[in-house]
Design goal:
Blueprint: E1 2-3, H1 4-14, H2 17-20, H3 26-34, H4 40-43, H5 46-51, E2 54-57, E3 62-63, E4 65-68, H6 74-83, E5 89-92, E6 97-99, E7 110-112, H7 116-124, E8 128-131, H8 134-138, H9 144-151, E9 155-162, E10 168-178, H10 180-191, E11 197-200, E12 206-215, H11 219-227, E13 232-237, H12 245-260, E14 264-267, H13 270-289, E15 293-296
Length: 304
């Protein structure tokens, strides 16, 4: 058993939660998702309601295992509650689900909150929940994009969207020469997904890629990467398939850009792109640095 306070302090220090301030994304999207239907400020830990990262739900003082996931989907939460022992910790990337849509299926609903019944069950079993979003995206050794680069055996040569700490959100990497089709097959294997979202040009030889986990479906980011000689842009999302006016506008903008870009544009799914770090770098960190047993909680469906 490990003290919950020791784990939380170690995570807060490793990901410098307070230094990042309020999470730019979830400080907006989480309150919007819950709206007035649920008193989230009363249910979640005070620090979390300020930073929107960190300890979200507090359980027992001691932790037996840490369970690793990306989104709090219903299947993930059901498994966590069933497979955990009282006091266990769920460590996720997102505090709410983000449905970005399936390129070969239905479009998504956008941000979806955790249903109150799951929060009630988690508290009744005295479990804890910790989430870390932006600080993990930028982390230079435990980052979501860094995990992708390492899986591809790439070498960082440049970056984009640097923060005040000098960390890059988008990594530009040299990789062993490969074709677009070869890269698609490689990524399907790395992320264990049945298909990718593919746009842009096909290349026989690719050796410079841009990598950004999560929602990289921003035309401006793609143009910046293209200007640096990138031949393939790899992200969780290439298209925004959110079923609302915003999503349709973004989809239209992306389709226009896809006609003119010289890059291969490859989306591996938002959740799969961010789960990779959990089953590799984060799993190793918990087990080797903190000596805590982990349990992986992959989603049943990666494209949501």
């Amino acid at each position: 058993m490990t003290l919950l306070s020791d784990i939380v302090n170690k995570l807060n220090d490793e990901f410098v939660i307070e230094a990042y301030g309020k999470d730019a994304s979830f400080s907006r999207f989480l309150p919007q998702a819950y709206n007035s239907r649920f008193d989230w400020k009363a249910e979640f830990e005070e620090g979390f309601t300020h930073y929107f990262n960190g300890l979200m739900i507090r359980g027992l003082q001691t932790v037996g295992r840490v369970h690793l996931a990306v989104f709090p989907t219903e299947d993930v939460l059901e498994r966590f509650i069933k497979e955990s022992d009282p006091g266990d910790l769920l460590f996720m990337h997102h505090p709410i689900v983000m449905e970005c849509g399936d390129p070969e299926g239905e479009w998504g609903r956008g941000f979806v909150p955790i249903h109150s019944r799951y929060i009630k069950r988690i508290k009744e079993k005295q479990l804890s929940v910790y989430t870390c979003h932006i600080p993990m995206d930028f982390h230079e050794s435990l980052g979501t994009s860094m995990a992708i680069l390492k899986a591809m055996k790439g070498k960082v040569i440049d970056g984009l969207l640097q923060n005040e700490r000098g960390e890059n959100l988008i990594l530009i990497s040299e990789i062993a020469t490969i074709s677009t089709n070869g890269l698609i097959e490689q990524l399907k294997g790395i992320f264990e997904v049945p298909y990718l979202d593919v746009e842009g040009k096909q290349h026989r030889e690719i050796n410079r890629v841009a990598i950004v986990a999560g929602c990289g479906d921003k035309v401006d980011w793609m143009k910046q990467a293209e200007a640096k000689g990138v031949q393939a842009y790899i992200s969780g999302e290439i298209h925004c398939h959110i079923d609302n006016e915003y999503g349709r506008l973004r989809y239209h903008q992306m389709m226009e850009y896809a006609e003119e870009t010289t890059m291969s544009l490859l989306g591996v799914s938002h959740s799969a792109s961010e789960y990779l770090v959990k089953r590799t770098l984060i799993k190793d960190w918990f087990e080797k640095v903190l000596g805590i047993e982990t349990n992986l909680l992959p989603q049943k469906k990666w494209w949501l």
